[in-house]
Amino acid sequence: MAFRHACGYGDRPFDPDDSMPSIHAIALLFPLAAAPVFAQSVADVGGKQPTSTAPANVGVGDTHTLWSPQLPTPFVDENAAPAAFMKAAEGAIAAGRLGEAQEAIERAESRALDRSVRPSKAGQPSQQKLVHQLADARRALGAGDRAGALRLLQAAMANPEAAAKED
Domains plus CATH for the chain? Predict the structure, then answer.
């Protein structure tokens, strides 16, 4: 009672029933005030996406977040054939830029997946050998096996499908 009076809350004695509406108001308004904070995902803090120079979220075993950091973009035309992205990945691995190598391999996979299929088959995974070779190279890179990733990329480069996707 003395605390309430001493802190300038009024001249009347403390009544616990008087404070209940304000506690309820705080409890109801807190989620609304905190919503903008919670709405910011980890992947968009301060308007910037987290970046990484190392392979990340390559497979189930190393995926620890709901988001993937932004990887460095390889210096390859976005419409290039998979082979151009594979060459960029080889160069990035040799230079120790593993995040860039992962991004280049993923882009090569995406370019290799450009295909025409009947709508009834659109949900079926691709059985293209090149797509499987690139996925294996990406997994090797994610496991830290640089030599294995390079070997798998070289095998994929020998695949005729690697150069056939030029636009």
Answer: 2-39 (no CATH), 60-162 (1.20.120)
